[in-house]
Design a protein that fits this description.
Layout lengths: L7 H15 L14 E5 L11 H19 L3 E5 L1 E2 L3 H14 L5 H4 L1 H15 L2 H9 L9 E2 L3 H16 L3 E11 L4 E3 L4 E16 L13 E6 L10 E4 L13 E3 L6 E6 L11 E4 L5 H10 L29 H8 L4 H14 L3 E14 L7 E10 L1 H13 L4 E3 L3 H9 L5 E2 L1 E2 L9 E3 L5 E3 L3 H14 L5 H9 L9 E2 L3 E2 L1 H5 L2 H4 L8 H6 L2 E7 L3 H16 L4 E7 L2 E3 L15 H8 L1 H11 L6 E3 L1 H23 L16 H22 L3 H28 L5 H21 L4 H11 L19 H9 L10 H7 L6 H23 L8 E6 L3 H9 L1 H8 L1 E7 L6 E6 L2 E6 L6 H26 L2 H6 L2 H31 L1
Parallel strand pairs: 1-2, 3-4, 9-11, 15-23, 22-23, 24-25, 26-27
Antiparallel strand pairs: 5-6, 5-14, 7-8, 7-13, 9-12, 10-11, 14-16, 17-21, 18-19, 18-20, 26-29, 28-29
Length: about 950
């Protein structure tokens, strides 16, 4: 028995437990051993994470695909797992130690600290997994993986060692994003660009051979900088080669202020003649662009900041010559000063000696660490790198050839732009939590990369014996006695970038590098669902690693979704206070309502606007369907064994079978095309409008009538349609559909494992292939049955009759609403010059049409009466006499006033959108909002014009 009220909280936990206990989500079910596999790997959330709206959207879309394909008979593996999240996890544990006033990481030592991290992971690391289960994610939870699992760790080590052996991993000194608080290199993804109100300092650099005079512009060149503290590391001044102001100076030198170092003036296209003075200082060790300029011109790299962001001039005395004060004194004065304090002191010293021309306010973007919140430094340091350019070539080719396709396709351009200009990938991090780099250093710094320490020791001993650094006897003794080789080689303390292990996710989770049968069965995967922000960091790297080690692209389709924003289109952020907590939404409205709300808004290539009201609307949809199922139950609607909808005799029942077939095909094809919002919209319209508002409404007279064949057939057809809806709706709203499936009748199994409606199990391409060549296109779907079933419920005659009733009633209601006619007012209807078929329909459905359209009478005439509103319904004219019902002139005046408002709205929006400055500078969401306003106003205008035209004809 269906409960009176729909209460998600009473259903969801119970259903989740039933699924888990039954093993419904497990891959490799015995009955599907011959079925085609369908694989999705979850983008592994951080083990420190908590469910946010991005997760909710991403996992809902994955779940739709998995439930859909599972119902289509595929052997579905949705591979779950979490990422160890190096920096985030280390920070969580370090913060916990600090709060408990326990020894810090360095006091504790590496081994003991890692014990504490593993302890934290065991106690608190599963939070987000439980939250994903609340959302309804149908992963094979028995196969959950963690990037630091033993098997995945072995995969990481093997990949590192093999790439190093192939020369694709190497160590190099380059600039990295350096976090002076966390004391580690970080990836671009962990850098946030923050708008800061700062200054632009204009500095005078004396030209060599000319007497410096602050009053004489010919004696110096002016450069502008936002980082005056780094000028101590300048090694050139760059000007554009076409800038005529500096043509004669290229090849000459300037004397670096304060330092006295002689540095060249070079011509480089990076300099912009339109910005500032057109001349820029070049500091290769402290700016990414300057680093590239330095490489082009062979400039030295002078680092003047240490790991903590303090001035470090020790060792640079050779570059500190010709100072107004001595180099030693200068180095001593500034050594160890924090960078922003040093900035003030250096600016003061520049001003003191006449090198500061002026200071201007300047708002600019400054990189900050997303975890630490401090300003990130470009820092010159030795790190491990992957030759991403070489690995990128097969990954580019795979997308160009169509082996992997992006949806929407426009993201392929983004992918190509980045991959074709890819830089070396810095993979080392100065952390303790993570995969420690499998590299050991000999006493002279020689590097030995190996899968195990024993292997590294063997390689090192062999090398040093060959080099005669140690004797063969010493080598033998050290090999057999670990005590004698203690300290002989030391392991690299750094760990790998988290994205390195994530790049192996599609095959490491399946058991690679072992010869696991799951690797052969489930790799390559089918669809990757992810956000656009990690195309570079994750998608591209999985493509590179998958193709290099597995010789196949890791997935055939990459579906890219956009951001979830608030209802006004603003990006959600804690600082704005507009973050919507998915768990809070689930508590209030249920997981199904949240899932359906997100899916209905998930149009390809568009951000999602979400509000509690939108979720509430979808909760109302669930309630409406719940009540419709209760109505069916109360009217004893049960599907008899062996019921065949093809045998229905009643026109209404054949119509609903026709419409059900149509929506099944639409939902199926739109899910296959990853048009999730269109699929959700189709099932929403069918359930709310077709099934609830029309079919059940039109069936009420039959259900309330006498017992007989028509009533029995209608009861069976309502139950059949309800069951088809439960199947179609299940991927979107799994909890409510599973509950209703269980309580509406005695069934043999769970809905999650029930077959998807057979007739839509084939695509139009498959049908074409069957018709022309007759092959078995999909081993799961018998092709002949699928082809026959595809049109089994097509009944154009039934659709023509019931569709006419629906369209007529809808038109009447619409016109009455347009003309402000109260719903209680009964009006006559005249059907003009109608066909015999239409007359018969009108007579058969007379009472129903009058009841639903609020009509006093239906009559027939050769011409429309005077003062009647005329409408076209399926090619025939119907007239609604309104003379005496409304004041036609007043109504026309009202509509023309409304038309003026619509025109004014359109004009106002057009003025904004034609303003190039507005379009260029306004946030993307604001521009999109204005376009939506215009579209709504245009639609309103069209409807008003149609109403005015009808009034003209009635006058």
């Amino acid at each position: 028995m269906i409960e009176k009220n729909y209460q998600p909280a009473d259903i969801e936990h119970r259903m989740a437990q039933i699924w888990e206990d039954s093993g419904a989500f497990k891959a490799g079910r015995p009955e599907r051993k011959d079925a085609a596999p369908f694989t999705i790997v979850i983008p592994p959330p951080n083990v420190t994470g908590s469910l946010h709206m991005g997760h909710a959207l991403n996992n809902t879309l994955q779940d739709i695909l998995c439930r859909f394909e599972r119902m289509r008979g595929r052997d579905v593996l949705w591979q779950p797992g979490t990422d160890h999240a190096g920096i985030a996890t280390q920070m969580v544990v370090e913060r916990q130690l600090m709060e408990r006033q326990e020894p810090g990481r360095r006091d504790m030592g590496r081994a003991k600290f890692l014990e504490r991290v593993w302890q934290w992971k065991a106690e608190s690391g599963g939070t987000i997994v439980n939250q994903l289960k609340r959302l309804g994610a149908s992963c094979d939870w028995s196969r959950e993986r963690f990037t630091m699992d033993e098997g995945l760790s072995r995969a990481v080590v093997k990949v590192f060692v093999e790439l190093h052996r192939q020369g694709l991993i190497y160590k190099d000194k380059r600039l990295v994003n350096w976090d002076p608080k966390l004391l580690t290199a970080i990836s671009d993804l962990e850098v946030q660009q923050v708008e800061v109100r700062g200054h632009l300092w204009y500095l005078r650099y004396p030209i060599e051979g000319r007497t410096f005079n602050p009053e004489d512009p010919k004696s110096f060149i002016v450069v502008a900088t936002t980082r005056p503290e780094t000028m101590l590391g300048d090694t050139a001044v760059a000007v554009h080669p076409d800038d005529e102001r500096y043509t004669d100076l290229v090849g000459q030198h300037v004397i670096l202020p304060l330092v006295g170092r002689r540095i060249p003036i070079v011509a480089d296209d990076y300099s912009d003649p339109e910005k500032g003075s057109g001349a820029v200082k070049v500091t290769p060790a402290h700016d990414f662009n300057d680093f590239e300029i330095g490489k082009r011109h062979g400039l030295p790299q002078i680092s003047v900041l240490d790991q903590e962001g303090c001035l470090s001039l020790s060792g640079n005395e050779d570059y500190l010559r010709g100072l107004p004060v001595g180099a030693d004194e200068f180095a001593t004065e500034f050594q160890g000063i924090e960078r922003f304090t040093a900035r003030k002191k250096i600016v003061a010293r520049l001003e003191e000696f006449g090198f500061l021309e002026r200071i201007e306010p300047n708002t600019h973007m400054v990189p900050h660490g997303d975890r630490s919140g401090v300003v990130i430094e470009p820092y010159l340091t030795d790190q491990w790198y992957v030759d991403a350019h070489t690995l990128a070539q097969p990954a580019i080719a795979a997308v160009r050839s169509g082996e992997t396709t992006f949806v929407p396709r426009n993201w392929e351009k983004t992918y190509f732009d980045w991959m074709e200009n890819i830089q070396p990938w810095c993979i080392s991090r100065q952390l303790w939590w993570g995969h420690q780099i499998p590299a050991w250093y000999g006493p002279d710094g020689k590097v030995f990369v190996a899968e195990t320490e024993e292997e590294a020791v063997g390689n090192a001993l062999g090398y040093y014996v060959e080099q005669e650094v140690i004797t063969p006897e010493q080598g033998h003794d050290m090999a057999v006695d670990p005590a004698k080789r203690e300290g002989f080689i030391t392991r690299d303390e750094d760990v790998l970038d988290t994205w390195f292990s994530s790049a192996l996710w599609p095959f490491s989770t399946l058991g690679w590098p072992d010869d696991a049968p799951e690797v052969a069965r489930y790799y390559p995967t089918n669809t990757l669902v992810t956000g656009f922000d990690i195309i570079f960091f994750w998608v591209a790297r999985m493509m590179m690693m998958g193709l290099h080690f597995m010789k196949e692209a890791p997935f055939s389709t990459v579906y890219i979704h956009r951001l979830v924003r608030d209802e006004k289109g603003a990006k959600m952020s804690k600082s704005k206070g507009n973050v919507i907590d998915p768990l809070g939404v689930i508590d209030e409205y249920g997981a199904d309502a949240l899932r359906f709300a997100l899916t209905r808004e998930a149009a390809q290539g568009h951000d999602i606007r979400l509000s509690p009201h939108l979720v509430e609307t979808n909760r109302n949809f669930a309630t409406k369907f719940w009540n419709a199922c209760r109505f069916a139950e109360m009217n004893e609607c049960v599907k008899p064994d062996g019921f065949d909808p093809k045998g229905a005799k009643e026109t209404l029942n054949r119509w609903i079978a026709h419409e059900t077939s149509r929506v099944t095909r639409e939902v199926t094809e739109t899910i296959e095309d990853h048009r999730f919002n269109d699929a959700a919209a189709a099932i929403y319209r069918f359930v709310w409008n077709v099934f609830c508002d029309w079919y059940l409404e039109l069936a009420k007279p039959v259900l309330m009538g006498e017992e007989g064949a028509a009533k029995a057939e209608t009861r069976a057809m309502i139950a059949w349609t309800r069951d088809e809806i439960l199947k179609l709706l299940h991927p979107f709203m799994p909890f409510i559909t599973e509950e209703l499936w269980a309580v509406t009748a005695k069934r043999d199994g769970l809905l999650v494992l029930a077959p998807w409606p057979r007739k839509s199990g084939v695509t139009s391409e498959q049908l074409a292939a069957i018709a022309t060549a007759g092959p078995v296109v999909d081993p799961i779907i018998p092709p002949v049955i699928a082809a026959l079933d595809a049109d089994e419920f097509s009944d154009p005659a039934a659709e023509a009759e019931i569709g006419w009733v629906v369209d007529l009633v809808t038109a009447m209601r619409s016109v009455k609403a347009e003309m402000n006619i109260p719903p209680s007012t009964l009006t006559p209807l005249v059907i003009v010059t109608s066909s015999d078929e239409t007359r018969d329909r009108a007579q058969r459905w007379n009472d129903t049409i009058k009841r639903l359209a609020r009509l006093s009478d239906i009559s027939f005439a050769d011409a429309a009466p005077e003062g009647a509103m005329q409408l076209l319904v399926r090619g025939e004219v119907v007239a609604l006499p309104l003379k005496g019902v409304i004041d036609l002139a007043a109504e026309r005046a009202r509509l023309e006033k409304e038309l003026g408002k619509a025109d004014a709205d359109i004009k106002r929006v057009d003025a904004k959108l034609s303003n190039e400055k507005f379009v260029a500078n306004a946030p993307e969401e604001l521009v999109e909002e204005e376009k939506e306003k215009r579209a709504a106003a245009q639609e309103r205008r069209t409807k008003i014009l149609e109403a005015i035209e009808r009034l003209k004809k009635a006058s």
